Structures are given as C-alpha cells and as structure tokens.
Amino acid sequence: MIFFGMTQCRSTKMNIFSQRKNWKQLLDGKRTYLRPPRGHHVLSDVFKCPDTRKAALGRQKRLSRLVEKHSKNFFKEKIKILCQHYAHFRRTRGDGSCFYRAFLFSYLENLGLMQDSQAEVTRLMEHVAMSRENFCRLKWDKAYFLNPEEYFSSVVSEFSHLVNSVANGLSSSELYNRSIQEIVPLRIISLLRLLAETEIRSREDDYKSLLPKEMDALTYCCKELRPLDVEAEVLPMRALTYALGIPLRVETVGEGSNCGIQVERLDLFPRSESGKGPLHLVQSYWSSITTPGPQDIGRGNLLSSDGTPLLTLLCRPRHCDILYRSEQN
C-alpha cells in the first residue's frame, strides 16, 4: 500500500510537471517581447500553470465589503466616499499586470453593451494600425523579438478576434470565462504593454517631463513596461489611453492625506481625432461632502451622458480593480 501510494504521488507530480512544462513551452514559443533586460529580477512563477494560481479575475462584489474587511480607518472612510457613487467592484490578480487586465476587461464589458459596437471596433483597430506604423519606425532589441513585425501582427490578430467576438454578441459569462484563461489574455496584455511603450517612445518629447530624472524613454520602458511583474504607474496608464483613444477614470485610494479624507480622481482623455491635441488629464479631489463637477469633454461610445469616462478603475497602492457605478449615477 505504501509502494502504491508513492507511485501514485510520483505519477501526480509528473503530470503537474508535464502541464507546467507544456504551459511554458507554449508561451515561450510565442516569442513574447516581454523578456526583461539583463540583471532585472523577474518572479519565477509568472508563467505558472493557471490552476496553481489565483484566478485572474474575480466575480463582481459589493464595494461595501471592502469597508467591512479592511482594518485601516482612513481606507474605510475613502471606500465609504466611493460607495456614494459606485455599487460593485471586481478584483484582479495582483501579479504585476492588474492594471492592464482591469483595463482590458472593463473595456470589453463596455463594448458588449454598446448599440453600435462594430463601429467602435473599427475605431479601435484604426488606432492600433496607427500604433503599428509607429512601432515599425522604432528600433527593437533582437533579444526581445524573433521577428518584431510578425509578433506584433500575431498578437493584434488575437486582439482583433477577441473584440470582434464581443461586438458580435459574446455573452458576459463567456467573456469572463475566456478572460480567466491564461494564454490569450497574457498575450493581449503583452500587446497593451507594447502599445504603451510604442506611444511613449514615439512621442518622447510629450512625455519627457513625466519621465524620472536622467532616464530616457527606452530605459524607462525596459524597466517599467516590459517585465510582466511591474505594476503600471500613471505614465503607462496615460500612454495606453492615448494610444487606443479610450478615456479612463481612475479613483485612487492611497495613504492618508494632509487635506483630510479625500479620494483622488484622474480622468484621462484621448487627444483630438487628429492625434495632434495636447495630453489631456483632469485631476481632482473629492470627499464625503464635495464631488468634482462633471467634465463636459464631449460625447462618444465610451463616455457617459455627462461626458465622463465609462471605464473606471479603483487603484490602491500597487494594485488596480474594476469599479461599477450605481444605477442612479
């Protein structure tokens, strides 16, 4: 019996090892550009088999649950402020790509609710095509690509297939099931990082004042965008928003403030349709008794009736989740 148990255990371990090996081979075979520069430490389990990791996305939950579960009073008070305007949130896995994952899923959810979703897909892919032109003008380290243009075309094809599936009626439950699978979402997340890098490096003059001192755009991107385990800061958020022409609202719940209990709000809007407008960011603070007024930026599929972004994320230190508005807001 002991011998049988040991044999069964070995067999199970071999199966798990085989699954992980095949999983890594499948990812490595895609030649993702997101291999870090030399000397950069990367988590060893970034490409672990999905059944050994937490789910990439959670189900919608009441936002008030964060008040019940958190121990810090300042955090509870800020969540209470958000509860005045938002009813639910959706957790994302904290593995370094939570912003990109939240951004992608929130966009796809909103796309599925649009009356003219096909027109939005056309607009989106036109932006991707413009990014491709900029991508082809840049020089890429061969260590990151077997064939740069081939890789870009490959992941764009997967992205196009996904957004068209949603536009053609993919149900929300099926979208969720697809999103918690690892291979395709990871590849598309690598595309989002690539689009943000292309935007920053192609318009370096626009972003120069936002880069850390004594760091050029390429160095910044190698350090902050390429490794899968590095969380997005405001700069990559802005770059991705502008690259895809997708407005985004970020509700930030950070550490305590000298100005009392307030929530910092960032509204990120794309450039003008000509692509030549200034970078547009609206920053505001609000509390339980004050709320920023609506920003009448314009109208569009991804803006609410008051001109504010539909895509809304909840950002805590080094983590992003998805927020859902109350029906009355």
UniProtKB/TrEMBL annotation:
<dbReference type="GO" id="GO:0004843">
    <property type="term" value="F:cysteine-type deubiquitinase activity"/>
</dbReference>
<protein>
    <recommendedName>
        <fullName>Ubiquitinyl hydrolase 1</fullName>
    </recommendedName>
</protein>
<dbReference type="InterPro" id="IPR038765">
    <property type="entry name" value="Papain-like_cys_pep_sf"/>
</dbReference>
<dbReference type="GO" id="GO:0071108">
    <property type="term" value="P:protein K48-linked deubiquitination"/>
</dbReference>
<dbReference type="GO" id="GO:0005634">
    <property type="term" value="C:nucleus"/>
</dbReference>
<dbReference type="InterPro" id="IPR042467">
    <property type="entry name" value="Peptidase_C65_otubain_sub2"/>
</dbReference>
<dbReference type="Pfam" id="PF10275">
    <property type="entry name" value="Peptidase_C65"/>
</dbReference>
<dbReference type="GO" id="GO:0043130">
    <property type="term" value="F:ubiquitin binding"/>
</dbReference>
<dbReference type="InterPro" id="IPR019400">
    <property type="entry name" value="Peptidase_C65_otubain"/>
</dbReference>
